[in-house]
Amino acid sequence: MIIATYNIDGLPSEVDLKDLPWILKPICWIYKIFKKTTIVKINDNNRPEIMDIMSYLAQKNIDITGVQEDFFTFRIQKLLSYIKWFPYPRLNLNGINIYYNHTKNIKIIKEKFIPWEKSYGYFSHANDRITTKGFKFYNIKYNNVLLDLYVVHLDADFYDSETNSDISGDIQARASQLKQLSDFIIKQNSKNPAIIMGDFNCSPKNVWDNQLINDNFLIPLNNVWEVSSEGFKDVDRIFVINNGSHTLLLKNCYYDTLVHLSDHQPFIAEFEII
């Protein structure tokens, strides 16, 4: 079984204010007067079409990919329909999905999204509260073996060593999120092997992030282990819990640093189920 975790940076590159509903048309007119255009740039990462990413995943023969920032929404009218106003205005989109190979013996039994109880940063600190971040829990049957799959996206931050940016709020949010995730996994009391993967926004290079992972995730779960690629580590991470009568045995893993379809590189792992 080959899996991948991939933050696909799926915010649209631009939106057209002409698509605003009539009640908001003055915004379009004012913007056009000052900017001489109705096009608003959102994403400067020159993201490719989703089909380019799909083609890449197919070429790699990946069975299941957990993705984050899957926001391929171009029209403002559709974006506005997703706005949730309480307790603060935000897009009720989580951007978390899985792509799986329909030619393989894979069946999705259950899917559930759980939003984070705590997040930090609205107009600053990576704007985590603008969207509804959290994790998705899947129960999957792969070649008649039941697996639990978690795809997560934790709060980010903008730490700057030169300015010593205050990221205490981000750290507290990620600590809460990791505890919420580990508590959920423990409560499931599942007898299935589990894969937990996603954009943890916890860099192995940062002492405080390693401490967060250890104290709020590794220690509470105690039987979880991390898939590690020698020579390269990033915020995109994969963890495994072996339960029940089946075991996930790691055969290979790597970050595909040669692909630039996003501002992240996919982290790919191959397992043998025994």
Notable traits:
single chain; 274 residues; alpha+beta; six-stranded mixed beta sheet; five-stranded mixed beta sheet; 5 helices
Describe the structure concisely for a colleague.
Helices cover 23% and strands 31% of the residues. It has helices at residues 25-35, 50-59, 76-81, 168-188, 207-221; strands spanning 2-7, 14-16, 39-41, 64-68, 83-84, 90-91, 97-100, 106-115, 134-142, 145-153, 194-199, 224-227, 236-241, 248-255, 267-273. The protein is globular.
What does this molecule look like?
- This protein has 274 residues and is α+β, with helices and mostly antiparallel strands.
- A six-stranded mixed β-sheet has the order 8-9-10-11-13-12, with no helix packed on it.
- The mean pLDDT is 89.
- Helix content is 23%, strand content 31%.
- Helix 4 packs parallel to helix 5.
List the SSEs and their pairings.
Blueprint: E1 2-7, E2 14-16, H1 25-35, E3 39-41, H2 50-59, E4 64-68, H3 76-81, E5 83-84, E6 90-91, E7 97-100, E8 106-115, E9 134-142, E10 145-153, H4 168-188, E11 194-199, H5 207-221, E12 224-227, E13 236-241, E14 248-255, E15 267-273
Parallel strand pairs: 1-4, 10-11
Antiparallel strand pairs: 1-15, 2-3, 4-7, 5-6, 8-9, 9-10, 11-13, 12-13, 14-15
Number of DSSP E strands: 15
Portion in beta strands: 25-35%
Radius of gyration: 20 Å
- Give the SSE string: EEHEHEHEEEEEEHEHEEEE
Distance between the termini: 11 Å
